[in-house]
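Regression test case RT-17, inverse folding.

Input:
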């Protein structure tokens, strides 16, 4: 499984020197603040030819009620599994391929003293948003290259094959195979190199604003995903589709 989301208008992210109080923001780690604004967004005068999607929270979704049900049946406090699974160090090892999903599952089970609960939760494959798949198909028919970049685990290829996602995109980039995870710009550079495009030729969308930072560094047009309607509007505004 990927780990991105187990837990109206297009949006632009702009690196500036100070936070604007009326917009959510996050630090990019270099003394700049990434500020969410509601203006039309564009990274350059180049019209993107490629749309790069995050996976979880955008194309695939997980029902938090399932985790809650597992915790309740196991006698665990709400949020126990998520807290154990998403510690910073453990998650970093997982999504850069240093440990497998099997090892992750074992470590979470040990942390909560309930291997069965951890295994039941982390065995979930999620559900695919069919409306998003239909939109992706529209883009590809129109000649747009579509790919996925996910902070994932070693089982992503098998999961997406089983869910029927693989056939609908031109490429899938899994950070567990790349060795660098979003928002590290090297993950985005890997995707660009494989696709034969430069940053300004790419439109990237993710449901986590902080994951957009590496894309911004490469000059990509970025969109903080909040639903398919705003995404369609952003892609239209970028001149990608319809043309």
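Golden output:
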């Amino acid at each position: 499984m990927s780990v991105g989301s187990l837990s109206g208008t297009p949006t632009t992210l702009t690196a500036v020197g100070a936070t604007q109080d009326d917009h959510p923001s996050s630090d990019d780690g270099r003394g700049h603040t990434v500020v969410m604004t509601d203006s039309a967004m564009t990274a350059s005068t180049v019209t993107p030819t490629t749309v790069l999607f995050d996976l979880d929270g955008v194309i695939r979704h997980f029902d938090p009620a399932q985790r809650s049900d597992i915790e309740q049946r196991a006698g665990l406090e709400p949020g126990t599994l998520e807290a154990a699974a998403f510690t910073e160090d453990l998650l970093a090892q997982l999504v850069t391929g240093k440990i497998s999903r099997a090892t992750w599952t074992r470590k979470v089970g040990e942390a909560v003293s309930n291997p069965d609960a951890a295994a039941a939760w982390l065995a979930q494959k999620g559900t695919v948003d069919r409306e998003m798949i239909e939109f992706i198909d529209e883009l590809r028919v129109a000649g747009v290259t579509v790919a996925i970049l996910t902070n994932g685990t070693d089982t992503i290829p098998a999961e997406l094959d089983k869910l029927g996602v693989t056939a609908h995109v031109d490429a899938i980039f899994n950070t567990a195979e790349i060795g660098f995870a979003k928002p590290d710009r090297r993950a985005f550079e890997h995707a660009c190199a494989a696709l034969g495009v430069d940053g300004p030729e790419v439109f990237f969308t993710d449901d986590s604003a902080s994951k957009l930072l590496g894309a911004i560094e490469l000059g990509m047009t970025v969109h903080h995903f909040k639903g398919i309607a705003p995404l369609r509007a952003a892609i239209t505004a970028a001149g990608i589709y319809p043309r």
